[in-house]
Amino acid sequence: MRRGPTDSLLLRSRLSERLEARERAYSLRVLIGLAFALSLCLLLTRLPWYPKPRPIGWQLVEEDRRLALLATQLEARAREDAGVPITRFAPPEPEEKKEGRDTSELKALQLRRRLEPPARLLAREVIFENPEQPPQIIGGLGAYYIHIEYPEEAIRAGIEGRLVLRFVVETDGRPSNIRVIQPLHPLLDSAAVAALRRVRFIPGKQNGQPVRVRMQLPVRFRLLSSPVQANNDNGSGR
What we know:
- There is one protein chain.
- The protein is α+β, with helices and mostly antiparallel strands.
- It has a domain at about 125-230: TolA/TonB C-terminal domain.
- The chain is about 50% helix and about 15% strand.
- The chain contains 8 helices and 8 strands, in the order ααααββααββαββββα.
- The chain has helices spanning about 5-45, 65-80, 95-115, 120-125, 140-145, 150-155, 185-200, 225-230, and strands at about 125-130, 135, 160-170, 175-180, 200, 205, 210, 210-220.
- Strands 1-8-3-4 form a 4-stranded mixed beta sheet. A two-stranded antiparallel sheet has the order 2-5.
- Strand 6 and strand 7 form a beta hairpin.
């Protein structure tokens, strides 16, 4: 059976399609191979590279006793062969030991300094009785009496008199450790202590440095009955 020109054209088109499909498949394989090769090269370049260690031969490590014994044997042989006395020199002291001594001495000195407090700290801890410059109330004694609030109950009961406070003026001028050593009445004692806590002092000094000072302060509570008596007792108290 003969084929017409249409069949031959159809056959040629099919053959050309097959060839094109093979070429495309080949090109795709080539591209895949190139991509794989490139990725492998990138992977190899990013891997850490460790140089091959150099071959190490044997190492001789001897103990000190064996070295000392060997040196003694060599000296004995040298004496027997030459008959000349050999003078042994003591090896120099290693620097590490010297540094160790210096370090231990430095640590001992630092520990001694820690145990011995500075003079300033001692001055802050010691409480003076009669320093070179005694403390003074800022504003004078009148500033202290201004802070005293005479209790109403004591006024109605007619309670008056004198009490004595003992306290410590700190280096910042603040009164502390306030005690009533000569009490008068609980109401008046509390009023005197509360007023003292409100005032501030010019701190006392010893050798030009502020120090803690123990002080006593007599406080008088008096009820004023007339203006004449108030003028006579001005500044003595309330």
